[in-house]
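[audit] Reproducing an earlier prediction to check determinism. Same input, same settings, fresh worker. If the tokens differ from the archived copy the diff job will pick it up downstream; this log only records the rerun itself.
[audit] input (313 residues):
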Amino acid sequence: MLDVRRLRLLRDLARLGTIAAVAQAHAYTPSAVSQQLAALQREAGVPLLEHTGRSVTLTPAATALVGHTETILAALEAASATLAAARTGLSGAVRIGAFPSAVPILLPAALVALGRDHPGLDLMVTELDPVDMPDALRDGRLDVALWHDYDIAPVEPDPGVDSVPLLDEKVFLAVPAERPEGTIASTRDADWIVGTPGTLCHTVAMRVCQAAGFTAGVRHHADDFTAVLALVAAGQGVALVPELGATHPPADVRLVPLDVHRRTRIAYRRGAAEHPVIAACVRALESSTTAYLARTGGGAHPVGAPHHRHVTT
């Protein structure tokens, strides 16, 4: 019988690439990970790892086993959902991840509704960049997450994560009110304010400028859109800001709509869609988003059907 915990380590080795990275992700020593993978290889009865110097690669059999592991882990999530549905009332810790611009706008009403309707839930919010959310969901550090990508920088499908679409926002070019820029191409010689390298916002800014035929001249790095807009208002450069990040722009900032969109999803581990806690979170977040759009009448709009589930793309 194959040990599920060891299968999870093999899956993470395929994802992370090194035993050291797997050890760090699980708070193990590299030696302990190696021992567990060796035990899994004995259970499998076929070679799973190939060692070349200090590096290790998966054999074709191991790669196939990783695919089965994703199915096994999803089945375990579904089994947990079935058991949870048989209990009376919802209780326990719920770890919710959200990107910064969603926290003050979409989360509060959802948290109030969840606390009112399910007082047994212990709700905990973590602010996280979208690039870190798949790992946090797979590792169990999050149970549900508000996760986004952009049409110009789509997220690759993750076999361990399912999601339901929530919101589609327009992205704006934010410029000082007195400057004449009205297109991305016109900012070729402007200073740019972009996110920290490695964040999705940084990637999007770079790609938008590359698509217009130039490399952004970065002057400032800032991840909070309030700070970004304050820098734009101070004449420090131009920036990209999605609709949720531009709800109260300074008077000295002009927002130019672009043909670029940010797409938000509610994400969770594959197989967990029918878990009553996950379903309650999805309903609360959908309701809070609908209420926000009704109040603001902005260009953002909800997407997807409330009960449609799909692997995120």
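[audit] rerun output stored. Observation attached for the diff report: The two ends are 33 Å apart (CA to CA).
[audit] end
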